[in-house]
Amino acid sequence: MEIWAATGSMRYEEGPNGENIFRIKVGVTVSMGDQTGTINLAAPENSNQLLELCRQKISEEVYSALEKSRELEADVFGFGETISRYAPKRWKQIKDNWDEEYQQANVELTVEIRGSGTGRIIRPLDNILD
């Protein structure tokens, strides 16, 4: 799988109980590149399954990076800046306690993945003769 394009956006809202909620949306366009093997990735059922596996892997990687950043107490994704930009009054309330707030923040991730076709597909001769 080759990533051709990726986009991302983050939205913030304060929950009904004062919790910090971040909604992250990641969009990825991938190409399947060259393939050799016996599974026909040009078939929709196979390509859809591969795209779903790719979506799951991207989600796992983002959540893993989030957990590592929390472990290191480093807001590398800019959640605090997002609050300060879109909810400045809220930021003034929590900025002095941001390290703790960051640990408790609710992050909802949506990954949308789109396939942009396949590259060269080479099937073994015995697969063609079956």
From TrEMBL:
GO biological process entries: spore germination
Pfam family, one: Spore_GerAC
GO cellular component: membrane
Domain Spore germination GerAC-like C-terminal: 17-114
InterPro entries assigned: Spore_GerAC-like (IPR008844), Spore_GerAC-like_C (IPR046953), Spore_GerAC_C_sf (IPR038501)
Annotated protein name in UniProt: Spore germination GerAC-like C-terminal domain-containing protein
